[in-house]
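Extended Data, record Transcriptional regulator
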Amino acid sequence: MVKKPGPDKDNAQLRLLKSVADGIAALFFPSVEVVIHDVEAGTVAYIANNLSKRKPGDDAGLDDLEQDPLAPVTGPYEKLNWDGKKMRSVTIATGDGESPGYLLCINLSTAVFEEARNALEMFLSVTRLQPQPEQLFRDDWQENINTFLHEWIRRENTSLSALTREQKKKVVQSLHKEGAFRAKNAADYIAGVLSLGRTTVYKYLRECKE
């Protein structure tokens, strides 16, 4: 595309796009840059939260736009920033048949998210775990209750917070059959986990025995 100086395009559309760019950049600061390209002039018209070290008036790199026109929304696609860090981008075209308009490019730096993911993967890596000491936890009744409870919840395809009162009653009675209440303070522990009163737990146990 042959570059030519565009007319004064600091019009209502550009002012609106600048406000949109500033708003997006402010909301997602410091990870998002928003660039407005003037398609007719082939230059960068505006940058909010500059991450790419470009400046207004720089060549926008739109030489092939006439041969390969953009869709109204393109992306997200990945590109590399000047510092070697990855960015994910979306380009929004505002042109129509009468005016080439502008391109609004939203560039998200994913470096901070990748660093967080890598840190989490390292922290949660199972390769660093050692087997649970058998002698130390052989009689860990709380863990045994937790294991049984969450296996029961998984089979019922529900969650701890979604258990109905009838389901809690069934859990208590199932735990009783497994011998969970032989441990001292087990009733208090189970009542706390299931958000039940201690008297309610004993009521369910009496009904089970009857």
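Summary. The radius of gyration is 31 Å.
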